[in-house]
Design goal:
The protein is α/β, with parallel strands linked by helices and 342 residues long. It is built from 11 helices and 11 strands. It is 36% helix and 14% strand. The strands form 2 sheets. Strands 5, 6, 7, 8, 9 and 10 form a 6-stranded mixed sheet that branches. Strands 2-1-3-11-4 form a 5-stranded mixed sheet, with helices on one face. It is globular and about 60 Å long.
Length: 342
């Protein structure tokens, strides 16, 4: 199956707004509304979502669909993709759906015929740049990576990625491991592809000997407790900790921020396609996106407000490289990163 594209699904994200195109579901696409309520069923979801956040989503979903039980297997994206690779080799993927990572990961799965084509009726109401044109996956939120600072320790916040190469930040920075975090792996490729950053910037950052934490969660905690007063981390975690009273603040670097859309997709060999489709519908529905916003994520619908304290999407400079370029370079970018930072 060929899925060659000149531009990526998320690369065309317009900064001006979450404008709708009004693209309706195709006549031959599966519509859960026409399928009727499925019989009692159990589906398994692989996800990198924090446990309490995915628990809240599953609880709300099963209130709407008590006939469906959702079993969750949660791990970092790197661990999930390794698990899926092993299961693919054995011929039996253990999940019905995946909610994690970035569009590039899902493009790879689509090319290997691992995903089920499904056009959700809710997809017409979200930003169309987050919808795979061939309907193998759909983005569920916008997750920018930013600079986080501990405001008790850092009195003058860095304004740019370049600022982090200043020797004054030596030994003060934490960032996630791209072998574990899908967003971190994606970021490594985006930074290396960026003309204003690239290898020179990454080498300068490595010279400051950042702490490489297991994932975004430990990075945000290190910033909050001051053990690493500067962090490179997804912005939703910063808002979570600030709301809980931690002295932490997000800075959106002037060069722009990389972001992932945490897509969801259904595996092609699922035994429960109807129940799986209903979960996809819920994640991108108005109610599902209101939950996302309540969990500090930037929503993907313009009928749902951004979380308190979050900037408007139009006010953020998003780095939008060509998805095919990032896919082709990501493995090498992670290897380069590991060579510099470990």
């Amino acid at each position: 199956m060929s899925r060659n594209r000149s531009t990526g699904v998320i690369a065309a994200f317009a900064l001006s707004a979450l404008a709708l195109t009004g693209c309706a579901a195709s006549a031959d696409a599966t519509d859960s509304g026409d399928a009727g309520t499925p019989d009692a069923s159990t589906i398994t979801l692989y996800t990198s979502e924090p446990q309490e956040k995915i628990d809240a989503i599953v609880t709300a979903f099963t209130e709407q669909h008590p006939e469906i039980t959702v079993d969750v297997f949660r791990a970092g994206t790197g661990d999930l993709t390794a698990r899926i690779a092993a299961e693919e080799k054995s011929g039996d993927i253990g999940a019905d759906l995946l909610l994690a990572a970035d569009a590039g990961t899902f493009e790879d799965y689509a090319e290997r015929d691992l995903l089920l084509e499904y056009e959700s009726p809710e997809a017409a109401a979200i930003n169309q740049d987050l919808v795979d044109p061939e309907h193998f996956y759909v983005g569920t939120r916008v997750l920018p990576t930013v600079v986080a600072i501990n405001t008790n320790v850092i009195t003058e916040a860095p304004e740019s990625w370049q600022d982090l190469t200043d020797p004054e930040y030596a030994g003060k920075i934490a960032m996630p491991n791209p072998d574990v975090s899908g967003a971190a792996a994606y970021n490594a490729a985006v930074w290396l592809d960026n003309d204003d950053l690239g290898m020179t910037w990454l080498e300068g950052l490595a010279a400051n000997q950042p702490l490489i934490a297991e994932s975004n969660g430990p990075v945000s905690q290190a910033v909050a407790d001051g053990s690493s007063p500067v962090g490179i981390v997804v912005d939703s975690l910063v808002r979570d900790l600030a709301a809980a009273g931690s002295p932490i603040e997000a800075v959106y670097p002037e060069e722009g921020v990389p972001f992932v859309s945490q897509p969801v997709g259904i595996f092609a060999d699922t035994a429960e396609p109807e129940a799986s489709q209903l979960l996809v519908d819920f994640l991108i529905s108005k109610e599902g996106q209101e939950i996302a916003a309540s969990q500090s994520y930037l929503p993907i619908r313009d009928d749902v407000e951004s979380p308190e304290g979050a900037p408007a999407t139009a006010d953020i400079t998003l780095l939008t490289p060509d998805l095919e370029t990032i896919r082709a370079s990501q493995a090498d970018a992670v290897e380069t990163f590991n060579g510099l930072f470990q």
